[in-house]
Amino acid sequence: MAVQAAEQQDTVSPQDNATVDLGPAVALSCRECGERIPLGPVFACEACFGPLEIAYDLPSGDPEGLRKQIEAGPDNIWRYAPLLPVPADVASKPSINPGFTKLVKADNLARELGITGSLHIKDDSGNPTHSFKDRVVAIAVEAARAFGFTTLSCSSTGNLAGAVGAAAARAGFRSCVFIPHDLEQGKVVMAAVYGGDLVGIEGNYDDVNRFCSELIGDPLGEGWGFVNVNLRPYYGEGSKTLAYEICEQLGWELPDQIVIPIASGSQLTKIDKGLKELIRIGLVEDRPYKIFGAQAEGCSPVSRAFKDGHDVVRPVRPDTIAKSLAIGNPADGPYVLDIARRTGGAVEDVNDEQVVDAIKLLARTEGIFAETAGGVTVGVTKKLIEEGKLDPSLTTVVLNTGDGLKTLDAVAPTTGPSAIIRPNLDSFREAGLAS
Amino acid sequence: MAVQAAEQQDTVSPQDNATVDLGPAVALSCRECGERIPLGPVFACEACFGPLEIAYDLPSGDPEGLRKQIEAGPDNIWRYAPLLPVPADVASKPSINPGFTKLVKADNLARELGITGSLHIKDDSGNPTHSFKDRVVAIAVEAARAFGFTTLSCSSTGNLAGAVGAAAARAGFRSCVFIPHDLEQGKVVMAAVYGGDLVGIEGNYDDVNRFCSELIGDPLGEGWGFVNVNLRPYYGEGSKTLAYEICEQLGWELPDQIVIPIASGSQLTKIDKGLKELIRIGLVEDRPYKIFGAQAEGCSPVSRAFKDGHDVVRPVRPDTIAKSLAIGNPADGPYVLDIARRTGGAVEDVNDEQVVDAIKLLARTEGIFAETAGGVTVGVTKKLIEEGKLDPSLTTVVLNTGDGLKTLDAVAPTTGPSAIIRPNLDSFREAGLAS
Questions:
Q1: Where are residues bearing N6-(pyridoxal phosphate)lysine located in the sequence (chains A, B) (predicted)?
Q2: What residues of chain B lie within 8 A of the CB of A189, using their CB?
């Protein structure tokens, strides 16, 4: 017996999956028209150009047994292998093994925000290269293995390049990643240190993306798996593991409310997909949950559309310190709007000053140094409470998807010593810092 | 029934520990003269000025039961609470909960180094503030709580300041940490972002240290717990958890060989102490293990003394990129020499170029971006194999104690793009990077 993944009611023929072993993944299916094709390195529907998603033959009938199997699994995303497009023996293959990051009960922050229920930070800075990108890349690596690719690639503004470089090194792939040539030195070093090829493109991120699309169609790119292009359907599924972990870490319970950053919107839609799968399989009890999306004001096309009551997202030119969220034309924007509205959530944005304040608030209360994207979610949580849109008496989970060490520039201008003193007690006394 | 900690054979009177609950810790005892005093915020023996250590009343008689208790504990250092100077309910107190970091089986690196046994990297960059300092600070915080301190402090060149800032924020302490005023901006930001007071001292690290010693003796410093001064006996015990985790992650087995960086030497001595405790309690089977110490050539007083056959370490003025190991007069140097000699290990050093090469080697083979201290241990491992001092057919564990993101400057000059191209296929073809 089997249940289908949340969005997919069709029957599945096992032949779809005859040559490729990606565990419970049996086919690709179009999110728009439902067209179904065999598993392969493609990302858009030939019939309608809609985005392709994984169709699963998910386990069913014995949720208690599955729960025990998961709990006895490794302390990383592979504990959820039965729910992911990966072979059953995935945990034995070389991987940087991301995931199972801390869910931090944030009582100090809750007090400051006036939250009387429970507040939790899902802190993905604990991943191997310190961002949630390790999750999505790890899944893409297994797809690349299955499809016989030998080179891993991506277009990136930094974080993804590092995640691909690290994952490829450990898994034994060559890597060749593309970035705008004028990135900050820190990001360049992080992307290059794993020894793969790093190519700077004279142009902006859009130019890099366009070049990668060209390369995929050319013989020069043969044998190349672009994690966020031709492997995107697999890659995206990595974000589901955030939903699985949050529920397991809450004692196999759904959170009431969850605040998620929006870049392309993929992460938010996949977390929703993951929650629905857990309900369908019977791993958590079905009850309503609300999904909130968080953007930076300087790149807030989804928040704008949400507030204006539109179904369509109008592209913008990003201008914000939250660079990892600065996608002006988010591919999954319409799906995000649908999920926020359907679950009774909302999409909200905060300005750069509020982002910095929120980074410091989280650091000061919980000892977690978040990247700008974490400042966006914490800042938006604060604003949603003030606006009465987020219920402070319920269980709320807020995502921090990256590490403050990667976006030092955001807080550096306003973060420094309380005093500079000479090395003697008089000088210290004058500074007025003694308790 | 009770067994004593490895170095301590005296009987223990429970009254020693009448007022302070730090679990199995019952007294402080001098490593030199054996003098025993009640638990308190002191670090040097009044009788002989020797360093004070924790004396324990460790569990015994049922290693299987203890092993099960540990395995059912939290995924952090508090799973070892029965072996640490912390109250039994420590896991319920606010802490950044470090530890239980990955032990990575490094097959790719093993191949490159000619290791035919098994090689493992204990990767402490996975701690909350991305260095092993989180372990030692977490234990010091519990001691500070027990002794009624309200302010946490330290002298630091960066990493420790960040660890103290984060831990204090989450645990509800005020913090006030002291650094040389001219540190790199990144380290200053990391130390200040958690909202405690950060004081820059006009002087070098030695000046900072001297100032802190003065402050401890002055009413201005009343109520202050300096994690690496008056709380040092507790703080140091945090490093034992590295030994516990390594053995548990090897399936409750001792490694044959372990390579550990040397700064003050405390970490190495405490890992040895931890291994001996596990043997004594019966959690691992007793068999020989060798401990190797690793230094950077530009600050290698212990390596020098080891090679010269001396028992005493002659201080040096540090000059190396491995700044977190740059202690020219290591307090535990003589103990390190004793352990390396007694276990049949060695102390070796590598130069800065070898450190950088080793950082890149580890990144390229295993996808782990280590700080300079990790380059020192990997580089020394390579050298020890070449010299025939480390047996490549055995089980070897190498420590990486920090994160490459914190020491970007070490690799930046030699790490960058393979090519800069225009965004078109011809330009890419000319670069010669197609597969």
A1: 133
A2: 408, 411-412, 415-416
